[in-house]
Specification:
The protein is of the alpha+beta class and 361 residues long. The chain is 32% helix and 22% strand. The protein has an 8-stranded mixed sheet, with helices on both faces. A 5-stranded mixed sheet has the order 12-11-13-15-14, with helices on both faces. It has a two-stranded antiparallel ribbon with strand order 1-2. A hairpin with a 6-residue loop joins strand 3 and strand 4. The protein is globular and about 60 Å long. The N and C termini lie far apart (74 Å). Bound molecules: 2,6-di-O-phosphono-beta-D-fructofuranose. 2,6-di-O-phosphono-beta-D-fructofuranose binds next to helix 8.
């Protein structure tokens, strides 16, 4: 009894106690589950499986240079991009771990054209969409890369008893970002971090490689009020529309520094911790990517959920809330403006005014 009282502190108690340092991610997730006595434990199980995958991927990423797994795998993915060996490693690691965990009904990965079925008899009540290795153009140059994930409950009508549920369908994935039950990323960098939300704030956990465990290191992350950084690929300037060109010129007049890594997870993480705005607008560079480069399901929506929980905001370049977009296909792309709420709102206002002025003239 005494043990129970000491061990099973509520999240609220953790939040006011400095003893949170040293809390492992699995114990944190179990405590979250205890706040929902009716919970089946499936989400806990799913997150724990993902964490194991993350640790394995981390090990692969760390020894990439030694194990000769850098470089191209010699084929293109469905987005027409070169697939790198590490992309394949990470994609296979997540797929093989999740396909028989019993918690997901199907998966969507950036690297697979169609939805990925799970093993027969293992269909569960969640969907998992993921980008196994985001920022892959940075792999060979030892710059931060990451895994992004987004979890929804599958369509309610298909949730049944364990081991009897039907396979997942594309429809299960065509849900708004606002309906995510959990989302986050693992960033492989100078230290490896897991940052995630289940809709009760954002917390960051840092991997202690000597122990092989993620510990709570960034409690209840809130994006700072001051927007320190502007992150955008200005190499695309000539492909932007005039409104976007003018907005970027406008924001550069402010007290802001430019930072662009070219790994979404790393750019997002820096801005989440230090304050900033990240933009990937639509451009005319590639006619097949009319809606920008980033994908809604496993890039924009999970990061939008995180930023919203951290007090920020994510929209498209016409001001649509990313979390309110109902996808029409699993690899849908979207323009993305994400970061400090005030600055993102101001960007929306600016772009709206430009459009109105153009309509008038
Ligand atoms: P990458 O192509 O290297 O995988 O969507 C993928 C992504 O990287 C993001 O991580 C990153 O923010 C963006 O594309 C970088 O694109 P640009 O090189 O066009 O700036």
């Amino acid at each position: 009894m005494l043990y129970d009282k000491i061990r099973y502190k509520t999240i609220k108690e953790y939040a006011v106690s400095d003893k949170t340092l040293g809390v492992t991610v699995s114990s944190y997730i179990m405590d979250l589950q205890r706040e929902f006595p009716e919970a089946s434990g499936d989400l806990t199980g799913l997150l724990n499986e993902l964490i194991v995958a993350a640790k394995t991927i981390n090990a692969d990423v760390n020894k990439a240079g030694l194990a000769n797994i850098l470089g191209m795998a010699g084929k293109k993915n469905i987005q027409g991009e070169e697939v790198q060996n590490l992309d394949e490693f990470t994609n296979n690691e997540i797929k093989s771990r999740m396909e028989r965990c019993g918690y997901v009904c199907a998966m969507v990965s950036e690297e697979d054209e169609n939805i990925i079925p799970v093993k027969e008899g293992y269909s569960g009540k969640y969907t998992l969409a993921f980008d196994p290795l985001d920022g892959s153009s940075n792999i060979d140059v030892n710059v931060n890369i990451g895994t992004i994930f987004s979890i929804h409950r599958r369509n309610e009508a298909d949730i049944g008893a364990p081991y009897t549920m039907k396979p997942g369908t594309v429809e299960d994935f065509l849900q708004k970002g606002s309906e995510q039950v959990a989302a986050g990323y693992i960033m492989y960098g100078s230290s490896t971090m897991l940052v995630f939300t289940t809709g009760r704030g954002v917390n960051g956990f840092t991997l202690d490689p000597s122990v092989g465990e993620f510990y709570l290191s960034h409690k209840n992350i809130k994006i700072p009020k001051t927007c320190k950084y502007l992150s955008v690929n200005e190499g695309n300037y000539r492909y932007w529309d005039d409104d976007m060109k003018q907005y970027i010129a406008h924001i550069k007049e402010k007290n802001i520094s430019s930072r662009y890594i070219g790994s979404l997870v790393a750019d997002f993480h820096r801005n989440l911790i230090s304050g900033g705005i990240f933009l990937y607008p639509k451009d005319s560079k590639d006619p097949s990517k009319k809606q920008g480069k980033l994908r809604l399901l496993y890039e924009a929506a999970p990061l939008a959920f995180l930023v919203q929980q951290a007090g920020g905001m994510a929209v498209t370049d016409d001001g649509t809330d990313i979390l309110e977009i109902k996808p029409t296909s699993i690899h849908q792309r979207t323009p993305l403006i994400i970061g400090n709420k005030d600055v993102v709102s101001e960007a929306v206002e600016f772009l709206k005014k430009m459009k109105e002025n153009r309509a008038k003239s």
